[in-house]
Amino acid sequence: MNESPASGHSSARTIAGIVLFMVGSLLSSLRLTQTAPDPTHLQADEITEKAEHRFSALKSQLPSRGVVGYDGESGNAGTEDYYLAQYALAPLVVERSKNHRLVIVSVTTEPPKPDTSGLELVKNFGNGVALCSNKDAK
Amino acid sequence: MTLLLAVISCVVAGYFLVALGWPLRYRSVYEWLLGASLSVGFGIGVFSVIFFLALVAGLTHLLVLDLGLVALLAGCLWFWRTRLSSVHARAAAGMRSPLPQWLDRVVMACLGLALAAAFYAAILRSIVHPHGEGWDAFAIWNLHARFLFRGGAHWRDGFSSLIPWSHPDYPLLLPSAVAHFWTVLGHESTAVPAIIGLAFTFCTVGLLCGSLGVLRGRICALLGGLALLSTPLFVEQGASQYADVPLSFFFLAVIALIQLADGRGALFLSGLAAGFAVWTKNEGMLFLCALTAAHVIETIRRRTVQPKIYNTAQLMAFGIPVAVFVALVVWLKHSIAFPNEIFSDPQTMLQKALSPNRYWAIIQWFAKDFLRFGEWWPIPSTLLLPALYFLTAGERSKPASPAFRASVLTLFLTLAGYFAIYVITPYDLYWHLRFSLNRLFLQLWPSTIFLFFLALPHWRPEKVSK
After folding, report:
1. Total domain count for chain B?
2. Domain for residue B256, yes or no?
3. Is A37 within 8 Å of B125 when comparing Cβ atoms?
4. What distance in Å separates the CA atoms of residue A23 and residue B379, rounded to the nearest whole number?
5. In 3D, which of B38, B395, B352, B420 has the Cα closest to residue B214?
6. Are the beta carbons of B129 and A10 separated by less than 8 Å?
7. What is the 3-state secondary structure (H, E, C) of chain A?
8. pTM for the full model?
9. Residue pLDDT, tens place only, B346-397
10. Do residues B463 and A11 make contact, with C-beta atoms less than 8 angstroms apart?
11. Which residue from A122, B97, B432, B449 puts its CA 20 to 30 A from B425's CA?
């Protein structure tokens, strides 16, 4: 597989290969800077920060550990909201079920609202967050 | 102050570990890069394990444990230094660039620009997404870190099937390392996972440039670094607080260390890196199986020429750290978490394995993502690299070494493993491919670049640099 010693032609070919590689790579780097957040309008991701704030008042009414229920919207938005609640309330385990003595009810957007039948309001914390009890829970 | 002490302890512990296995002489900038990158990555890895073991054992006073570890490693280093034989480094490349000086400077400038762009994008993304960018950052990795940090003796509560999408069976290198620094700090800080993510990102680049510099010289080191830094997905994922970039760091460390030296010490470090990979993500276990299979295949293939690639002592040096981490992960999976959902229903798995449509769909996605996974624009690096290979004039490499062939085979087998997982996945196939395939490719990308530049023809300085 040995090639003949590099000639002027082959060295030019090598240089062309390296230049092509550099140009292609730098264009991708340029794209990286273009898709980066605007440094003049830096604002921390509001979704996670807001969720931390939304559930902070609720924390004092919940046990420090164990499992509580969660009742929220269905669909993708509801799933994300559930995980944000779990993230904010750890190390408490939040199960997406009403079958618990204490159930967090969370509503973030317009209807359809979660089905709260069988739940009794304990306290409304505002921002779409309420704590309910379920006396029928096993 | 305590945090600074912990950070210094982390890097020093990593440095001592690296020095124990491979006494680098730090004669060139590449050896410095290599040593520093490995020290940071291994330091974070070992701090993760220390935290987890302390948590399981109910030990407090983490900083005392950290300093004790550093003292222990220093003692081991002093003891072994007098006994370890010198390293059989495979390093051979001269440091002088074979290219015309102007081009050498242009390549250097391009790397500088790509580094600045990557740093700029990564820092801005970390500021804008303090809890990580994307679902997995807060729903898996940082959530697990919170359970480890906030849960105290009840940390196991968080690894429960009641939180199904948080993947309770995932290994804990990243969450444990984050929780370690939070514990030392005394409170949670979003800066910790962000800095750990950035450290792994830029240490992967350092490891790639350092190992290529030692093995193939300056120009390959610069071009290799450029190839990785100009992969937008690599930088974005590095800043996103996911575990894929840390995993890619350990994959590269395993492969680079095998290529760099064949002494017991380097193989011990390689085994340690493989262990850390197993402790980072489930794909680490797959990679370890692929690595083992590749070396067995290579050994069998060479049987008539040479009986072994490695002797028993070398195998032990590699196998002992691997065995420790495999035991740790197996213990974690069996005693704490519930089984991985991918392997939970054998009958459905078999049904899916017998469906040819799934294979065809996966092949199509693999082909498409091969060109676009890095989010390059406008020319994918997966096309630029072959173009560079064919345009490069020079002496083609001698027949590949067994270690090189085994490394290439390892990547192919890992890729085949990813393919097989998609075949049997219980999730919607297209959804699974859409949200994970690019990250799986990314895990192997630094190692692929490394092996590519090792295979690149050798330039002939006396002819090219006029």
Report:
1. 1
2. yes
3. yes
4. 10
5. B38
6. no
7. CCCCCCCHHHHHHHHHHHHHHHHHHHHHHHHHHHHCCCHHHCCCCHHHHHHHHHHHHHHCCCCCCCEEEEECCCHHHHHHHHHHHHHHHCCCEEECCCCCCEEEEECCCCCCCCCCCCCEEEEEEECCEEEEECCCCC
8. 0.94
9. 888 999 999 999 999 999 999 999 999 999 999 999 999 999 999 987 766 6
10. yes
11. B449
Residue B202 lies in a domain: yes
Do residues A68 and A102 lie in contact, with contact meaning Cβ atoms separated by under 8 Å? Answer: yes
- Is the residue at B56 inside a domain? yes
- Rg of chain A (C-alpha set): 27
Q: How far is B229 from chain A (nearest CA, A)?
A: 7
> What CA–CA distance (Å, rounded) separates B49 from B160?
21
Asked if residue B141 belongs to a domain, the reply is: yes
- Strands A67-71 and A93-95, sheet pairing: parallel
B337 Cβ under 8 Å from any chain A Cβ: no
Q: Which amino acid is at B65?
A: L
Domain of residue B85 covers 2-343
A36-80 per-position pLDDT tens digit: 999 988 888 777 777 888 888 898 889 988 999 999 887 777 888
Taking an 8 Å cut-off on Cβ atoms, the answer to whether A37 and B229 are in contact is: no
| DSSP result, B174-242 | HHHHHHHHHHHHTS--THHHHHHHHHHHHHHHHHHHHHHHHHH-HHHHHHHHHHHHT-HHHHHHHHTT-
Q: How far apart are CA B70 and CA B17, in angstroms?
A: 9
How large is the ipTM? 0.90
| Token pair of B114 as six digits | 């790509």
Identify the CA nearest to B165 among candidates B131, B136, B142, B132: B136
Our CA-based measurement puts residue B292 at a distance from the nearest CA of chain A, in whole angstroms, of: 30
| CB of A103 closer than 8 Å to CB of A120 | no
